[in-house]
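Lab notebook, bench 4. We co-purified these components, and the gel suggests they stay together. Before we commit to crystallization screens, I want a quick structural picture of the whole thing.
Request: model the full complex, all chains together.
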Amino acid sequence: MAFESWSEVWQMGGHGVFVWSAYSVTLLAIAALVIVPWRRSRAEVKAQRAWRARQQGAASSHAP
Amino acid sequence: MWTFIHKLGSPPWFYRISGVILRWLLPMTVLALAVGIVWGLLYAPVDYKQGNSYRIIFIHVPAAVVALAGYYVMAFAGALSLIWKIKLADTAMRAAAPVGAVLTAIALFTGAVWGKPTWGTWWVWDARITSMLILLFLYLGVVALWDAYDNKVAAAKACAVLSLVGTVNIPIIYKSVDWWYTLHQGASIKFSGESAIHSSMLYPLLLNIVAFYALYACVVLLNMRAQVEVDNRHARWLVEQIGDD
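Here is the predicted assembly.
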């Protein structure tokens, strides 16, 4: 490791505020990039499965 | 070649293959990003001139590189959409735009935060930074233009034209540091000749560039799949693919 202790990692030789804000904003943005379409897709798939289950339920209730 | 393009335009084929790709690519991307970021933050040596602020390079450069390459992806999808009227190409173009916008914003933000301790200013209207800002507006323009049309065929056409016209900005961004006197430094990584960066810093940087490319592919595929699911709602092949699990 390039640092002696965790507090040195946090300080980054006085540049901590710059380095950590850059990394945290980037990681949040990356997480949002993945989570937004993933959630959208999951909701859509769930709705379509429910629709299909309803269709099958309706079909079987009409059976003699 | 032609059968390949036809297959590529087929939503059922795309949906199945992209599902298989993501199952492998997404975990590998997360792993590569984790290793690359920890390596850059903790293990790469400190820069003798800039101190630790230079560690921002490990996210700044990958985000900028992929934001530029991603513009070609979007414009290429736009060209496919214009020439062959492939609906999946429209979907790809629309899926790529917000990802490119976020990556460009990351490059601009991390650049500003890096500029403050290094140059003493958050922002300067030099050629590199200004042309990157134009790139951000081009991406946002495609998103806004798409949403402005109710007729998605017309939307795709307008977005494709804007994407293609905007490609003139990409070589300008690349060359801006050579053509003008910019505060922004020139390229440290060179394809030919010696890179102006030591291997102990170069390797984690290259790893992160690869990881950001993989991330880009994952997110564009995720966006496309979400749109394909909506566009093909209740289609028999989709019902079969999503199953009951």
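The interface with chain B takes residues 1-3, 9, 12-16, 18-19, 21-23, 25-27, 29-30, 32-34, 37-38, 40-41, 44-45, 48-49, 51-53 of chain A (CB under 8 Å). Worth comparing against the SEC data before the next meeting. The CA atoms of residues 27 and 50 of chain A lie 34 Å apart.
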